[in-house]
Structures are given as structure tokens and as C-alpha cells.
Amino acid sequence: MVGEEGAFVLGWDEVLTEEELSVTLKVLCMSEEEFKEYKEQDGWEDDSEEEENSTLSNEALSRLKSPCKKLLYDSVLLTLESYGADLKAEQDLLNNKEAYEKLSRREQQALHVRYGQKRILHQLLELVQ
């Protein structure tokens, strides 16, 4: 459902792979009976126009149904656990000029990327709490 990489792309203001995330949440939050019905009705094709025109903005994410919010929340926690250090540790390293300058250019760039990713994930946690 999520393509070859098995990941969703999140931005500061919205989900960039919104169709994949929307379908995945919908299916994972269905009961077995609902899933069978959805599948029998060719639910994999385009859904209603309402869903086609909606975007998964941050505001929309905060209005998701509880089961979808819980699923997203738990998924974000698992993703954050896969990082070696927490957001605070990354921020401390960025703020420590001496330690930061000891890093190679590549390590500095990686630090900025990880920090940005973690900030987006923490923002998502707040939206779906």
C-alpha cells in the first residue's frame, strides 16, 4: 500500500503522500467485515469525490477518528525509537558550537536532516494526541 519504500512523506504543513496514507489508515482501521465489503465493492478504486478533494493537512490530521490517530501516534513513536538519539540530544549538539565543529561536514548535514525529521515527527505526535 505504501509503495516500494514502505514510508510516508510528511511535510511541515501536510502529508505529501496523502493518498497512500489515507488509504492505509482507512484499511488498517477497518474491521474484518468492513474490509471484505470494501474489497468486494472494488474499494481500491477512487473513493468518493469528498475524499479526492480533501488533503491531509495538519488540521485534517488533528480531526482524524480516534483509531486512526492512535495508529499514527504509535507508528510515530516506533519511528522515533529507531533513531539513536532523541530530539533534545540532537538540539543540544546543534547548540554546542565546539562539539558541532568537531563533526565532519557530512555528519553536520546528517545531524540537520535527522533533527528536521524528528521535529516533523514530534509535530505529528502533537497533532494526533
TrEMBL record:
- Keyword Methyltransferase assigned: yes
GO cellular component terms, semicolon-separated: nucleus
Query: Where found?
Result: Nucleus
What SUPFAM superfamilies does UniProt report for this protein, alphabetically? RuBisCo LSMT C-terminal, substrate-binding domain
Q: Print the keywords alphabetically.
A: Methyltransferase, Nucleus, S-adenosyl-L-methionine, Transferase
User: Where is the Rubisco LSMT substrate-binding domain positioned along the sequence?
Assistant: 4-121
A Pfam family this chain is assigned to? Rubis-subs-bind
| UniProt biased composition (Acidic residues) | 43-53
What the entry lists under InterPro entries is as follows: Rubisco_LSMT_subst-bd (IPR015353), Rubisco_LSMT_subst-bd_sf (IPR036464)
Q: Name one GO biological process term.
A: methylation
Gene Ontology MF annotations: methyltransferase activity
Report the leader peptide range: none
Name the segments for region: Disordered: 38-59
Primary localisation category: nucleus
| Domain of life, source organism | Eukaryota
By what name is this protein known?
Answer: N-lysine methyltransferase SETD6
Native organism: Erithacus rubecula
